[in-house]
Write a structure and sequence with these properties.
The chain contains 14 helices and 15 strands. By secondary structure, it is an alpha/beta fold. Helix 1 packs across helix 14, helix 2 crosses helix 3 and helix 8 crosses helix 12.
């Protein structure tokens, strides 16, 4: 089939949705589909780069406790009409389909089978509360809906009730399993790793307080911090004023370096306080064999099973975080058990499995529309057959 993956965020800039889209593009092409990525530009990128098609300019705006993107163009309608006429997509797959304005314009003009994937999770959203009153027609143009977790489904269905298929995010375990640890950090000092954007909802300050408590109690531990963001100045000031030892701010790193750091970690910690729909970073850590400690929040419970694949602690509780860290660091048997269980668990989320599930859902929606005599005029591919049973991974 001819498939267009629509992302409202500027591809391939770093971010969970764009990482998802890029991996899905790769897997769907490997499964024999003709795939394009439809996105916007941000700066001096070319309008078209191979299978990446750019329409409009993206601008960063605060959203859901982080930074999102809206795209604008004075000639959206003409550009999108020309794109859809030229490409003749059978399926258009929108990621966060209600983010203005690229997805909304493409969805309005689409004559294809329209699938939406919802990635976000949060509390009360004023934007969605307002949006459900004006976006009902857009929502009705979606023929199928995917949520990346029960948390994401719960969030979006509050505003747009419907049937949502849960298809999780994916990971490439071999990238992390085969990484080589960084030798300079293998000196006997336990390495605690944080990977994430430095913003309040990621909870770095609570991890820093936990590290301080451990060091005050005489524990020797090193904290490696990967990422950047608006909270970096506060984090650095806390480290300086509390005179914390062995805390390194590594900034943004390459994917290869990130895999090495996961492999180097004795413990990976994600102390997010909420608004996490899934937790790809947990899967990356588990794939590497790093024991995981994370907040006991809705989105993370879709990945980590309590005391089986990792340790869950109350969010924003630095004392509980410090206790959990000491427990893992000083209990080799627990550390080995969490490492083995996490590695096994991550194999259930490979991108090959996730891509197959998405592909099968396309087929389900297309067959349902065909049975109803409701296939859009732009669909011209053969109707996908009902798939045979797929063997579950160990």
């Amino acid at each position: 089939m001819k498939i267009g993956l629509v992302t409202p965020y500027v591809y391939p800039m770093p971010g969970g949705v764009n990482d998802h889209v890029g991996s899905l593009y790769r897997v769907l092409r490997a499964r024999g589909h003709d795939v394009r990525i439809i996105t916007s530009s941000h700066g001096l990128q070319k309008a078209s780069e191979g299978d990446v098609i750019r329409i409009g300019k993206g601008f960063s705006v605060p959203f859901n406790g982080s930074m999102g993107t809206i795209t604008l163009s004075p000639t959206y309608l003409r550009q999108v009409r020309e794109l859809l006429e030229r490409e003749q997509f059978d399926v258009l797959h929108f990621h966060e389909p209600f983010v203005p304005f690229l997805s909304l314009v493409v969805l309005t003009l689409s004559k294809s089978v329209n699938i939406g994937t919802f990635h976000a999770f949060g509390g009360l959203s004023l934007s969605y509360e307002f949006g459900r009153r004006v976006m009902g027609d857009y929502a009705n143009r979606l023929h199928g809906r995917i949520a990346v977790s029960p948390a994401a489904r719960h969030f979006i269905s509050r505003y747009f009730p419907s049937e949502y298929k849960i298809v999780p995010n994916g990971v490439e375990p071999s990238r992390y399993r085969n990484a080589v640890p960084i030798s300079r950090y293998r000196d006997g000092v336990p390495n605690v790793l944080f990977v994430g954007r430095m913003e309040p909802r990621k909870g770095l300050i609570h991890l820093l307080r936990a590290i301080r408590k451990m060091q005050v109690n005489g524990e020797q531990v090193r904290l490696l911090i990967v990422g950047s963001g608006p909270g970096e100045r506060e984090a650095r000031r806390y480290v300086l004023t509390r005179q914390l030892n062995d805390v390194e701010f590594l900034g943004r790193v390459s994917d290869a370096e990130k895999a090495q750091l996961f492999k180097t970690a004795d413990v990976f910690v994600s102390p997010a306080t909420g608004r996490e729909s899934f937790g790809i970073v947990l899967l990356e850590a588990m794939s590497s064999g790093a024991p995981v400690i994370c907040s006991d929040i809705h989105g993370y419970r879709a990945v980590v099973r309590r005391e089986r694949d990792g340790i869950l602690v109350p969010p924003a509780d630095s004392d509980a975080l410090a206790d959990a860290l000491a427990r893992v660091i000083h209990d080799p048997e627990l550390k080995a058990r969490l490492s083995a269980a996490g590695t096994e668990r991550s194999e259930l989320f490979t991108w090959e499995r996730v891509g197959a599930s998405v592909d099968e859902y396309y087929g389900f929606v297309i067959r349902r529309l065909a049975d109803q005599g409701a296939l859009p005029s732009g669909f011209s591919a053969p109707i996908p057959p009902v798939p045979g049973p797929r063997r579950r991974s160990a």
